[in-house]
């Protein structure tokens, strides 16, 4: 299988994930004759709902962007790569559910912990996918040379685990840690970009 087919399928799944999340943003209902104001959003407790949506949107965007970089380093799609990719999409497909529960929970510990668990498992799945690509391409492949020790990949699970535990102690701290991890990954890995750009380009029209 060519990587373009896998990317197209993954793009479609992530687009659906974002669509489902935005459909959870519901307009507050009020009696007839009520004049709508911005204060209604606060009264209807939509601020945490919007916060959870924005945070999850950023995470999905990060995965979409970095997934593109991963696929740019793969020459073809093997069976292990395909199933590792499906594993990643499985956990990302649960993001809308955890986002909705987090937004409606008003600071409850269990939704914050579940949100972190899903992010942690998505991070593990992303790591597995990258390992499968490296195994298919070899130690001298583009991805293996680009990520090196992968400090962000090592730090993220630790921060997720701390956030899950913090949810049962002080929930705002877990939110803050999720924001920190998102900030770490917000900018795509420039090492991959540089190596992909430097690689010899296949002539147009060749297979």
Question: How are the SSEs placed, and which strands pair?
Answer:
Elements: H1 3-23, H2 39-43, H3 46-72, H4 79-93, H5 95-104, H6 109-137, H7 142-147, H8 151-166, H9 171-185, H10 190-198
Helix pairs in contact: 1-3, 1-4, 1-5, 3-5, 3-9, 4-6, 5-6, 6-8, 6-9, 8-9
Description:
The chain is mainly α. Helix content is 74%, strand content 0%. It has one domain. The longest helix has 29 residues, at 109-137. It starts with a helix and ends in a 9-residue tail after the last helix.
Give a summary of the structure in a few sentences:
The protein is 74% helix and 0% strand.
- Regarding quaternary structure, what we see is single chain
Distance between the termini: 12 Å
Q: What value does the average pLDDT take?
A: 86
Assign a percent range to the helix content.
over 70%
Number of helices: 10
Shape: elongated
Please give the domain count. 1
Structural class: mainly alpha
Strand/helix succession:
HHHHHHHHHH
For the largest beta-sheet, the strand count, sense and barrel status come to: none
Low-confidence runs: 203-207
Strand coverage percent:
under 5%
Tell how many strands the DSSP assignment holds.
Answer: 0
- The radius of gyration computed from the alpha-carbon positions, rounded to a whole number of angstroms, is 20 Å
Entry keywords:
207 residues, mainly alpha, 10 helices, elongated, disordered C terminus
């Amino acid at each position: 299988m060519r990587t373009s087919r896998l990317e197209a399928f993954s793009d479609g799944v992530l687009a659906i994930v974002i669509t489902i999340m935005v459909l959870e943003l519901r307009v507050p209902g009020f009696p007839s004759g009520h004049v709508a104001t911005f204060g209604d959003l606060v009264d209807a407790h939509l601020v945490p709902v919007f916060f959870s949506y924005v945070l999850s949107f950023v995470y999905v965007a990060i995965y979409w962007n970095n997934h593109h970089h991963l696929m740019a380093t793969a020459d073809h799609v093997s069976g292990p790569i395909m199933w590792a990719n499906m594993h990643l999409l499985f956990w990302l497909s649960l993001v809308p559910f955890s986002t909705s529960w987090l937004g409606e929970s008003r600071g409850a510990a269990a939704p914050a912990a579940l949100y972190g668990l899903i992010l942690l498992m998505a991070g593990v799945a992303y790591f597995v996918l990258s390992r499968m690509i490296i195994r298919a391409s070899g130690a001298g492949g583009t991805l293996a040379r680009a990520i090196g020790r992968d400090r962000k990949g090592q730090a993220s699970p630790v921060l997720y685990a701390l956030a899950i535990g913090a949810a049962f102690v002080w929930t705002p701290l877990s939110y803050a840690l999720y924001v920190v991890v998102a900030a770490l990954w917000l900018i795509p890995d420039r090492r991959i970009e540089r190596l992909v750009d430097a690689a010899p380009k296949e002539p147009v029209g060749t297979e």
